[in-house]
Design a protein that fits this description.
By secondary structure, this protein is mostly helical. The chain is built from twelve helices and two strands, in the order αααααααααββααα. Helix 1 runs antiparallel to helix 4. The longest helix has 17 residues.
Length: about 240
């Protein structure tokens, strides 16, 4: 299946969610979102909602504000604003994806386009160096919304492109730390009891990532790429 570029998938979100019913009421804690903010959400067409209209809702939905059905309606706009340069910076992308996971997005009629979006975002990291999202931020987001990231790590292990290698180098050197001789992702949004976090930890510390890097060192001839791969290998070796 051909996956469209992320921008094209984002642009298609609203149309794909056209059948999601617009809520007529949002149950909410008045301490978390004001009545006038709820009124804006209920009375403004989804595509006209702006960042400030959705911040409180995005932070608290699935906890003290709203639930699965209204999140299904607002999800395309939340994602569009979160994945647009100069768009929504709070709540963080990880938190939006956590909410989607809590809402069991895979059971929604629109699950196919959400899956395509997640695939497109990850392919972008493996083939480009997107300025709008950090690799660790996206990996944690995917790990919060999906039951497994094993296929993501498998694809990353190929290290076919300079972007995949550069993004792994950046992730390891700026978004991990070593504790008890094991690399640990620093992103505070990770649920360290989750299956996806265990998959990442195993990949980083128990051999698969190191084997992938050693294979890439043998395959690539660029001096710049070799230097990055060597630095990655050095970062992984203390965990062995």
């Amino acid at each position: 299946m051909t996956v469209r570029p992320p921008a094209d998938v984002v642009a298609a979100l609203d149309g794909a969610f056209a059948a999601a019913p617009r809520p007529t009421n949002i149950d909410a804690c008045s301490c978390c979102i004001r009545a006038e903010e709820i009124a804006v959400l209920l009375n403004t067409p989804r595509q006209r909602l702006q960042v400030d209209d959705l911040v409180a809702y995005g932070v608290h939905v699935m906890n003290t504000v709203g639930g699965t059905e209204d999140l299904r309606y607002f999800a395309p706009r939340l994602l569009e604003l979160s994945l647009t340069p100069d768009g929504m910076t709070w709540p963080d992308l990880e938190l939006i994806f956590i909410k989607l996971g809590q809402a069991n997005w895979w059971s929604w009629p629109e699950a196919m386009i959400l899956k395509e979006l997640m695939d497109a975002l990850w392919i972008d990291v493996l083939t480009h160096d997107p300025s709008w999202v950090g690799t660790g931020e996206l990996l944690c987001s995917l790990g919060s919304a999906q039951p497994s990231i094993a296929h993501r790590l498998h694809d990353w292990s190929a290290l076919r492109t300079a972007a995949a290698i550069a993004n792994l180098h950046e992730f390891l050197t700026t978004e991990t730390e070593i504790k008890d001789r094991r690399l640990v992702a620093q992103n505070a949004y990770w649920d360290t009891a989750s299956t996806t976090y265990t998959e990442l930890s195993t990949w980083l510390n128990d051999g698969p990532a190191l084997a992938a890097v050693e294979a890439a060192i043998a395959a690539h001839t660029s001096e710049a790429v070799q230097a990055q791969l060597t630095a990655i290998r050095d970062r992984l070796l203390p965990t062995r």
